[in-house]
Amino acid sequence: MPDPAKPEEFAYRFLQDIAQDLSQKELKFPTFIDASLGVRMALSKKDLSTADLAKVVRSEPLLSARVVALANSAALNPGGREVSDLKNALVMVGQNAVRSLAVSLAMEQIAHAKELAPFAAQSRQLWEHSLEVAALACVLAKRRGSPDPDEALFAGLVHDLGHFYLMWRATRFPELVKRGDELRELVRNWHPGIGAALLQNLNLPEALTRAVDEHELPPSRLQPGSLAELLGVADRCSKASGIAPPPETTDGNPRELTGNSLDEDTARAILEEAAEDVKSLVSILKG
């Protein structure tokens, strides 16, 4: 009878399985991720006509409902004039907001997919964390005037996509799933690069994929004023609030701040002042 596999062998086989895909420079989307993101990617095309936008949105009844709800929200419709048809709702809301709602809905569906049932609690926590990071990043970008708030919002929504992917892959290794601490460490180290690779497959902008790839790096290694820096700060602020476990935030090297740099003290002061904006945005994204 062969000896049972040692614990480290489960991790090795898991990483070998992932590395094989990475060596082919193409990660295959699992069906539940592909189905959730597929329609949304049609919205990444800029300057869609209202008719084309409506055609995409109508294919997703839940998305249609959320667009109409947003058009009737106090944030966009303070006068309270009822908007009941999709065409008028799209004109009022705009393509960028529709895109954000669509991606938010996609991440929610991914988090609740049956394929991630062994990680149900972690998936929900991760989804809620992604919503908060998106809201924090968007508000910080608006208050600072850079980078683009819509890009910051999108980056926050998808920054942990690799985490969902790795949890799905881990279901092929039941013995590793049982070793929670070991699996968490593997996912923590690998999810930024995996997420970036998935987004590269969708031909998304380099600044976005780089931000996702770098968001867990120590602040001293991030380019001042970049989307990656903003995303990293938003991610750390969210984790420090208790929605997700706090990360290691320093590599021991003091950071030399420049005029474009965003340090966490400045970010926290901005976010404290804009707390209601963050809360409102999370509520809208959550639906």
Please tell me about this protein's structure.
The chain is mostly helical and 287 residues long. The protein has a single domain (7-28, 102-286), classed as Hypothetical protein af1432, CATH 1.10.3210.10. It has 15 helices and no strands. The longest helix has 25 residues, at 120-144. Mean pLDDT is 83; it is low at 243-259.
Feature tags:
287 residues; 15 helices; mainly alpha; Hypothetical protein af1432
Give the tally of structural domains.
1
Global Rg: 20 Å
- Total strand segments: 0
The CATH architecture comes to: Orthogonal Bundle
Q: Report the sheet with the most strands, covering strand number, pairing sense and barrel closure.
A: none
Q: What do we call the CATH topology? A: Hypothetical protein af1432
Write the layout of secondary structure elements.
Layout lengths: L6 H17 L7 H11 L8 H9 L2 H11 L14 H8 L1 H17 L8 H25 L4 H10 L2 H10 L3 H5 L1 H22 L4 H9 L12 H14 L23 H10 L1 H12 L1
